[in-house]
UniProtKB/TrEMBL annotation:
Lineage of the species this protein comes from: unclassified sequences, metagenomes, ecological metagenomes
One Pfam match: HRDC
Organism, as annotated: freshwater metagenome
This protein's name: Unannotated protein
Cross-referenced CDD domains: RNaseD_exo (cd06142)
GO BP field: nucleobase-containing compound metabolic process
GO molecular function, one term: nucleotide binding
Gene3D superfamilies referenced in this protein's UniProt entry, alphabetically: HRDC domain, Ribonuclease H-like superfamily/Ribonuclease H
All residue ranges annotated as the HRDC domain in the record: 212-292
Amino acid sequence: MPSPTDTVVSELAAAAREHGRLGIDTEFVGEGRYRPLLCLAQVAVDTPSGGIRIELLDPIADEFDPAPLADVLADPKIEIVLHAGRQDVALLKRSWETEVRSVFDTQLAAGFAGLRSQMGYDALLREVLKVKLEKSASFTRWEQRPLSDEQKQYAAEDVQHILQLSVAIQNRLVDLGRLDWALEECRALEEVDDSREPELLFPRLPRVDGLDPAQRAVAFRLLEWREEEAAKADRPPSTVLQDQTLVELAKRRPRDRERLAQIRGVNEATLHRRGERLLKAIAEGRDYEPIPVERERPARQDPVDPELVALTETLVRTRANQEDLAYELLANRSDLQRVIAAWRDGTDLPDVRTLQGWRGDVVGKDIFALLNGELALRVGPDRKVAAER
């Protein structure tokens, strides 16, 4: 027999399908854990009378099957509205074992609608809807139960106006002819996750390139082992074994507890709790296929002229102001440095978003015109920078 919460979940899913949209936010705890723990999911859906229904789904206090809502999140025909939703998407994908499609992120979209980039939810509500929230429980232990009425009110407010906010922002975007731009940017959030694949973590280990192929194989096995231990204990990997200790173990490859104890960073607690498993992982790493060092690396580029970087940044900011766009949506310093280096060296254009799609039309072509002396920056009568050919 379905629990009361299961019934609520089914009703929310049905409402989302009927009206084609769902607002959602999460509360979670990440500190001291292997990966963030979902503590609460706040859901907002439309009602037949034109109102908004808000429900707090508590996976800690209630057992329920999220499958109906998980299916909604994965349905590309249903718009999923969030604010600053990168962490929410990753958390929901893992916790509810689903995909999240048709994302509309109100914070991200606001930057296309002539609003400040990276605006907090309450600030955006004040700016767009003239609604003021009373935020009094932002720093709270969301994993502790029972939740207070104040915590529940805080959580509910996070989705109380989110559907109305999304409509207001989308109306602005339609008027500006930028809805497609914003939707394209929001769709990128569908691909985020918080998985920790050893193959992706391994190249980021400090000093791992200084190991020989056999040592690198041991380092890879130790990285796998550390992830396994951290996941099992639900603790950050660094509390199991620090990076520098892992690399030193791979370099020296101790075969017994006595030699293991000589490694800096292997304390008595580690020896007592994990010593035998650690030695076993090192032994297993010896049997791994050696991992060669990647010798084929891009040649180190000479630093680009900082004055050219400053000049192109000024152009981007000028275009952003003219188009009423957030600067961060057009470019960043790293991308501009790569573009300038390619222009200077006469090499292929870098794969950076500033040169692609609508960004290329708004500012990408002008960057090269500026560098080639075909476009100039000047201060106009209004004391603002303008670009002219």
